[in-house]
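FORM 12-B: Structure-to-Sequence Request
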């Protein structure tokens, strides 16, 4: 919104008022000049173009006094009324200008408030974009580190499934957790987990993997809390859920289990919202 039109209207109003005053004053002077000319004309017509004597001038002076005094008195009263009218108009214009000024101040205040809110929103948007950019970088870094840890060779090559039975394995951590352990029966998988917990190297490695997985999960949750679009956040949340599930197959604990439940609930809510939005209306 703009305040230029009210200012232009005030300027035009002042110009019109000044012009009206000048015109009225000019007409008043012209009227008085006409009256004086008429009176002088009557005098000269009465004496047929002569000047007359002193007595005639005295009588003429009395005549002018008798005629002009009421006229001048009437003109004085008229000028007083006209002056009062002008003052009332000036007062009315001043009040209108004051009202317009107050309106302009209110509009300016509203514009300033809108500008401030827009600037704050822009600043918040820039800050969120910067946070999301940094979180994305950390997510990629964490995922790369996780992939590196998972690609390493699993140090345990054999383990006892029973006192007289040994199971041979030769896998990377990724292959073991994504394929080999899924093909084992419950008894064999439990024996592998028991043997793994007794191996200090495997335990230390899984601690590193678990720490990286929890970091990735927390970053994904933070990304979801900041980003307005659930599409991008959902991709990171699915990745976090997948790697949490993988790690929990052989090294579960309360922290990873709580993260799995939290992310599963969020993804269920997102899927429910998307389903309601995309559901066709029944006519």
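FORM 12-B RESPONSE
SEQUENCE OUT:
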């Amino acid at each position: 919104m703009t305040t230029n039109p009210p200012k232009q209207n005030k300027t035009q109003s002042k110009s019109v008022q000044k012009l009206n005053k000048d015109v009225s004053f000019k007409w008043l002077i012209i009227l008085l000049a006409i009256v004086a000319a008429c009176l002088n004309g009557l005098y000269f017509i009465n004496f047929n173009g002569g000047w007359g004597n002193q007595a005639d001038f005295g009588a003429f002076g009395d005549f002018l006094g008798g005629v002009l005094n009421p006229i001048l008195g009437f003109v004085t009263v008229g000028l007083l009324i006209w002056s009062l009218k002008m003052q009332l108009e000036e007062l009315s214009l001043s009040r209108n200008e004051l009202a317009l000024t107050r309106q302009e101040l209110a509009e300016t205040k509203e514009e300033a408030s809108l500008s401030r809110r827009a600037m704050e929103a822009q600043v918040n948007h820039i800050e969120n974009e910067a946070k999301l950019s940094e979180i994305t970088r950390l997510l990629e870094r964490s995922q790369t580190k996780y992939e590196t840890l998972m690609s390493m060779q699993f140090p345990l090559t054999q383990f006892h499934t029973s006192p007289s039975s040994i199971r041979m394995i030769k896998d990377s951590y990724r292959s073991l957790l994504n394929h080999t352990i899924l093909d084992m029966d419950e008894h064999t998988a439990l024996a592998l987990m028991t043997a793994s917990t007794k191996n200090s190297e495997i335990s230390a490695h899984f601690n590193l993997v678990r720490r990286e997985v929890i970091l990735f999960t927390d970053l994904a949750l933070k990304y979801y809390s900041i980003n307005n679009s659930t599409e991008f956040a959902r991709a990171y949340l699915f990745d976090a859920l997948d790697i949490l599930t993988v790690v929990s197959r052989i090294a579960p604990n309360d922290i990873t289990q709580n993260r799995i439940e939290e992310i599963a609930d969020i993804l269920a809510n997102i899927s429910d919202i998307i389903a309601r939005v995309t559901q066709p209306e029944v006519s």
